[in-house]
Design brief:
The protein is mainly α. It contains three helices and no strands. The radius of gyration is 18 Å and the shape is elongated.
C-alpha cells in the first residue's frame, strides 16, 4: 500500500528524526527505543530494506566527539577545575547525550536511506 509519490529528502529526514514513517509521516518508526518496526502501521511502507546498520552509532560518536571535546577543553582552560571533576562531568554527560541523540540520528538516517532508495538487502533478500 505504499504510494508512488516522489521521495523528497528534507521531509523524510524530519519525519525520521521525529520517529515517524518517512513515507507518510503518521506511522511510528520504532517499536521500542531503538528497535524498528518492520513496516509502517499506517501506509505499509517497509523499513527493513532501509534499516541503517552501525551508521547511527558512528555518527553519534563522531558528533559527540567533535562537539564535547572542544567544550571540555575550553572548560578546562577557562575554569581550571580539578581533573577529577572534569573527568566526571565528561563521563556523565557523554553517555546521556549519546542515548538521547542515537534515536534521532537513527530515524534521520533511515529517512535519508529511504528518500534516496538505498537498500541494505542483497538481491537474494538477505
Amino acid at each position: 500500500m505504499t504510494n508512488n509519490q516522489p521521495r523528497t529528502l528534507t521531509p523524510a529526514l524530519r519525519r525520521g528524526a521525529a520517529g515517524r514513517c518517512p513515507n507518510c509521516g503518521v506511522g511510528r518508526l520504532f517499536n521500542g527505543y531503538l528497535t524498528l518496526h518492520h513496516t509502517c502501521g499506517y501506509c505499509g511502507q517497509e523499513f527493513r530494506p532501509h534499516a541503517p546498520a552501525a551508521g547511527p552509532a558512528f555518527v553519534t560518536v563522531a558528533i559527540l566527539g567533535l562537539v564535547t571535546g572542544p567544550l571540555l577543553w575550553a572548560a578546562a582552560a577557562i575554569l581550571t577545575p580539578d581533573r577529577l571533576v572534569l573527568a566526571l562531568v565528561g563521563f556523565v554527560t557523554l553517555p546521556i547525550l549519546a542515548v538521547l541523540l542515537l534515536r534521532v540520528i537513527k530515524g534521520a538516517m533511515l529517512g535519508y536511506l529511504w528518500a534516496l532508495g538505498i537498500s541494505n538487502l542483497r538481491k537474494d533478500g538477505q
